[in-house]
Please model this.
Amino acid sequence: MSKPHSALKWLLASAIMVPFSQSAYATTILRLAYAENSQPVKEALHYIGKAVEEKTNGSVMVQFFPDGQLGGERELVEMTQVGAIDLTKVSSGLLESFSPLYGVFSLPYLFESEERFYQVMDNPDIMGQVYRSTESQGFSGVGWYDSGARSFYMTRGPINTVADLRGKKIRVMQSETSIETMKLLGASPIAMGQAEVYTSLQQGIIDGAENNEFALTIARHGEVAKFYSYDMHTRIPDIVIMSTLTKRKLTPDQLVALKEAITESVEVEKQAWKVEMEKTRELAQTQFGVQFNTVELAPFKAAVQPIYDKLKNKPQIYALYQQINQLTNE
Model:
């Protein structure tokens, strides 16, 4: 873990003043921090605060630190590990570096449809083991949010075939599987933080990136990358995580109420996501001038087959992949 930055030092110092043992009449304050996010995710996170307050008659309240006030997603995970914050939401792509099981969501073309994706994410037998896989590191997953399908967007023309990616420098998340996927597709993967992408596209440091459509408008990447090509190579969910230390703050009833609020927030986010995504596509076209196209998926799937051929060498992920495959093929 990196040395605590100033926000973490402040939170750790102030956290000492908040007793873990709460009287029957005290209000327990949970700290929820998040980086920059789409509006549906923000709505869902703030729903948690309202719902848990109502469900506990005000004995649990949520204090929010929004929009990267306390740092990026990796910093927020580290704060959650030490209990400086109680809850946060991060990409499962980032969590791959904490637990290999999260790497299953980076497997290319794993889900053939949104329906199949939801079927897996709402399955407690599959997701329970994934959520618990980081307990020894001070946090666990407690819910998930839709983050759409990731596709390519480029500065100098659309991606229509695998050949169009050859030699192109593509920004990816710091994910071993994502990096390997780009290499198999013939691209040169460049791992970098989201905050660096706009300038890198603008200056030609990278030729394109891969993300959902919100990146075009919220991060304004559509100002410099005008071609969005739907190959939908991954559906990498966002994960709500909770500090292991937070359980010491809550009574059993309060913990149940919090988990209920988080579960309800998943449905809030799903519905809001669909509405906002339609608006985002229209905005990207009309105000940013982005052109959208679809691709023939078979050649792309064939190109990344070696990832699946080697999956047996990763027993944990392979077993989880088999479970997912069985569920989605039933």
Residues 15-24 have pLDDT under 50 and may be disordered. The longest helix spans residues 252-286. The chain is about 40% helix and 20% strand.
